[in-house]
Automatic annotation (TrEMBL):
UniProt-listed GO biological process terms: fatty acid biosynthetic process
Protein name: Enoyl-[acyl-carrier-protein] reductase [NADH]
PANTHER family, per database record: ENOYL-[ACYL-CARRIER-PROTEIN] REDUCTASE, ENOYL-[ACYL-CARRIER-PROTEIN] REDUCTASE [NADH], CHLOROPLASTIC
GO molecular function, a single term: enoyl-[acyl-carrier-protein] reductase (NADH) activity
Length: 283
């Protein structure tokens, strides 16, 4: 349903690959709420993904940019403001990738070159996006910038390896740049810490199904789906959240503040009962 929450607002949405992507869902909701925007993704994703389809659906231009390249970002921001005919009110950074996670390297055996890539793609690119936006002075007063994080920034999830470090850095960058942009232009910067979500980025993690199911059982509301995350992001782009800044905001159905749930207890009791049965059979 449209409340025209983003009527008259312009922005850039990074990271839509296919319809499962959080950025894809956000583009659909932003469009429905009256926003105009440019879509961007890495050149390889433009070749492999379906972003042009989304562009047609949202009447949005698609501009390739490797978010680790300041040069690409400079071109993107100047083209986007030209196409949109003015400065920006929102930017979504929905970018993450770890070659170490893809190669299933354990945390103690990370390839350091790849580690640097993970940090560059998944965290430093957030700094670069804001650095270019600031230098080109493309943000409107009371604009909003959002990045996506995961609770592995605060708690250990062994299979998330160097992505956990990248997410900690991402959240720190949101605070530091949020201070700077808040002072300069009343622009807010936040990260949303989202539930495990079935997407290309999520699917690359070893044991993803297990921690998806575990989070589902731990959260009183279950895992938050991508389309609901999109609505939360749009609320942060709207004028209803102007003084929310420098925060890491959980969108996780209650996972982050639940110690243990009845569902998890039941799961453990079931497993224990099966173990006891097996032992009995062996005796
Ligand atoms: N899926 C989950 O379980 C989950 C949970 C919490 C947070 N997140 C975060 O949400 C964000 C979006 O991921 P998603 O789950 O929608 O998956 P996704 O795979 O659909 O999106 C990740 C995007 O990053 C883009 N990307 C990778 N390298 C890039 C580069 N160099 N330049 C520009 N773009 C690049 C990819 O092309 C892709 O579109 C990521 O930051 C991810 O870490 C995901």
């Amino acid at each position: 349903m449209s409340f025209n929450m983003l009527k008259g607002k312009k922005g850039i949405i990074f990271g839509a690959l296919d319809e499962n992507s959080i950025a894809w869902q956000t583009a659909l909701v932003a469009k429905e709420q009256g926003a105009e925007f440019v879509l961007s993704n890495a050149p390889i994703a433009l070749r492999m993904g379906k972003i042009q389809e989304l562009g047609e659906q949202c009447d949005a231009k698609v501009i390739p940019a490797d978010a680790t390249s300041v040069e690409d970002l400079e071109k993107l921001f100047s083209e986007a403001t030209e196409i949109l005919g003015g400065k920006l009110d929102f930017v979504l950074h929905s970018i993450g990738m770890s070659p170490n996670v893809r190669k299933k390297k354990p945390y103690g055996e990370l390839d350091y070159k790849l580690y640097m890539k993970t940090l560059d793609i998944s965290a430093l690119s957030f700094h670069k996006v804001m650095h270019v936006a600031e230098k080109q002075d493309v943000m409107n007063e009371w604009g909003s910038i959002v990045g996506l994080s995961y609770i592995a920034a605060q708690r250990v999830f062994p299979f998330y390896t160097d992505m956990a470090d990248a997410k900690s850095l991402l959240e720190s960058i949101a605070r530091s740049y949020g201070y700077r942009f808040g002072k300069a232009k009343n622009v807010r910067v936040n990260t949303i810490s989202q539930s495990p979500t079935v997407t290309k980025a999520g699917g690359g993690i070893k044991g993803f199904d297990v921690f998806f199911d575990y989070a589902e059982k731990m959260s009183p509301m279950g895992n938050a789906p991508a389309d609901e995350c999109a609505k939360y992001i749009v609320s942060l782009f709207s004028d209803f959240t102007r003084f929310v800044t420098m925060q890491n905001l959980y969108h996780d159905g209650g996972f982050s503040t639940t110690g243990i749930s009845e569902d998890v207890v039941e799961m453990i009791l079931d497993a224990k009962a099966r173990e006891d049965e097996e032992k009995k059979d062996e005796e």
